Amino acid sequence: HHLICDGWSIGNLRRELSLLYAANCTGSTPALPPVIVQFADYSSWHRILSEGGYLTRQQDYWRQQLRGLTPTRLPTDHARPDAPSHSGRLCTVIIQPQTASAIGELSRHQKVTPFITLLTVFKILCVRYLNQTDITVGSPVAGRCRPELENLVGFFVNTIVLRTSLSGNPVFL
Asked: Could you tell me where the DSSP H helices lie in 1-135?
């Protein structure tokens, strides 16, 4: 559950369980990666950062970056109900292999990830349908900023704001 771990951690758990299972089946010793740090170390690092003024500097920086921001209002096909129902639907989109390949090729050529390419397309659609040129999107990031955190199980995810000004009719690339 996301209270105790993130999606990256699930991959770590699967990998380690597979190694343990294989070792158990063969009677060998599992070759688990060494545990260099614990989640408590990560928490301690953040506590130290917040005490040293780092957190205040980060807050000041982001207040400046997000100054003048107006909420992005996505259009809906109906008004929100007075009382939330929490009912939802799933919309599955299948990207054809040739389209996925073209997105990958464009991304490599521009030296960006496919995520950034598709985020750009999404933001361009937002400009078109929202009549706004200052577009913000929240996106979760792994939050594993140090190599020794890669094999840990825990909740490291952070949500960041990706703000883009598309004023002045910039070119797609």
From this structure: 7-26, 39-51, 54-65, 97-110, 114-130
Tokens coding 128: 């078109």
CB 158 within 8 A of CB 140: yes
| Mean confidence (pLDDT) of the chain | 89
Report pLDDT digits (tens) over 89-109.
888 999 999 999 999 999 999
The owner of tokens 């699930």 is 10
Burial grade of 106 (CB within 10 A; 0-12, 13-18, 19 or more): middle
User: Do residues 66 and 163 lie in contact, with contact meaning Cβ atoms separated by under 8 Å?
Assistant: yes
Strand partners, 141: 158
From the list 73, 43, 70, the residue with the least C-alpha distance to 154 is 43
Contact between 120 and 172 (Cβ < 8 Å): yes
Condensed to tens digits (0 to 9), the pLDDT of residues 46-99 reads 888 888 788 889 899 999 999 998 877 777 767 777 888 888 888 899 999 999
